[in-house]
Specification:
heterodimer, A: alpha/beta, Alpha-Beta Plaits, 4-stranded parallel β-sheet, 3-stranded parallel β-sheet, 16 helices, globular, B: alpha+beta, Heat Shock Protein 90, 5 helices, 29% strand
Amino acid sequence: MTTPQYIHAIQIDTEICIGCSHCMRVCSTQAIRIVDGHASISPERCVDCGECYRVCPMEAIYVKDDRLAKGSKDYIYKIALVPAVFFGQFPVKYSVTQISDAIRELGFNEVFEVEQAVDFIKSEYKRIAKDKDIVRPVISSFCPSVVRLIQVMFPSLTENILQLKPPHDIAAIYLREINSTTNIRPEEIGIYYFTPCAAKIVAAKAPEGEDESPIDVVVSMRELYNKVYKLLIENKSDKDDLKRRSSMTSDSIKWSLSGTEREYFRGRSLAIDGVENVIQFLEILESGRISDIDFLELRVCDQGCAGGIVCPGNRFLAVERIGERQKRLQERLKENKKVLNPLMEYAKELQKVSKVKEITPRKGLLLDENVEIALQKMAKIKTLNSYLPGFDCGACGAPTCKNLAEDIVKGNASMSYCIFVQRIMEKNYKLSPEQAFLTIEKIWGKNRLNKYKDNYGEKEVE
Amino acid sequence: MKMQFDIAGGDFSAAGGASSEVKKTLKQLNIPPATIRRIAVALYEAEVNVVAHAYSGVMSVEISPTNIWVQIADKGPGIPNIDKAMEEGFSTASDHVRQMGFGAGMGLPNIKKNTDSMELKSVPGEGTTLEITVNFN
């Protein structure tokens, strides 16, 4: 059984992690276990949604990105690829122009908004919606965590995922294309993508269905936010935003939020945000209960990318600000005639490279490659599970009793991990209190129980 | 691997629960995703048939390394004319059932389309038994 190497941006700092299991309880794919006093994430199951990151009280879970300083010596021409939600992080008194200027001041030669590529995606949707042979509902490939969630949890729906590159990829390909005619060599151009979440780091590093990524450096939005905010406070430049001619279609800036994308796919469509909502819907879709929907816009984060885990600001404020900016763009459109998006001049070339290979399922749920062995394991799991209390208390270091039963059959745990089973074993002299103590330490870490003082605090347990 | 589920007649909100459980089990085995999809669709249709037409039913499932066998036996009015019931678009569903989005007359034809073998037996006034098999490869 060959195990593919899956790259993840969500990481645990075991120096800081106290193994408190908050993350284990919220993980939608049951990818987390507590081992040796720390959380441990299964790479086969993790979809980089970042729900664990949100709940960690120790800030022991981090998003592994490149740092802003990466490649500063290698690249002569640096391009910042910035999503619209970034501009929504700042109070409205700072204009998009001011924010872009501040990014330039940090050493970038060009600032390009990711959503500039949305006009191209819209034109593709128009074409794809006419295709009668395509498997419906077509599922948007925009949210990389949704794509991975389907690969892990809903293998039979991978064929519904649209084989189209996301806007950040299209934008990066376009930027490479237009800069290919200059004197700068391709390897001297550095495209830096600033991401609102962990999943997009993975998508930019190891895109599904693509051989290589057109993006060179991926940096969490938070680092850029802090640097830009400092400059905005120091600088006192005027607001001249309205004088510049925009090449952005007004509603494109809302693409990454919930509800805009679906309007561009003809037919019946739904916009669903929030990981549990997405899972619930995919569950009924996979069960064959939905037959007349054409398109699904799915976002793992509530409020779409405004709710991304490394977005520094409040998601609702960001959505409101992006809405205000849309209104300003619409006003300007009335004055300035038509929007001219230079990217669309390359639409034909982009179309040739915009398709990704078929997305294939991952093996996170498989018990064994061999169906016969898998069935045997399944029978064992069923038997073991029937002996477990069914409280899903998590004291064994697994999120549910069924997960513990699975872990035992996979050889990663034993029945005595269950504290209820331990009591029975101790009662029947099958397990000594010392052995039970060692088992608990194996899961929750050495000396974990030492803080409990026996005899009402008079004597410490050695 | 054997499983059994009770299906309550008339409970549309719970329809699909049994087929969903079977699907979850199949995902842990190395079965082609397209096959899982066919099974899920067939079982869901069969489950809805019980909910829409019968008083109660039992879904029995047996998974072997090479195939899945499912029997859905219900207590209900039965099917007087099986050939007619197999025709696409034919339905005896009440207006009430149709208003809920069911009863388009595609259930049985859809089950046949998605399975490798299908056997339907019915005694009018007593109930209906459906047996289906889907091979994994």
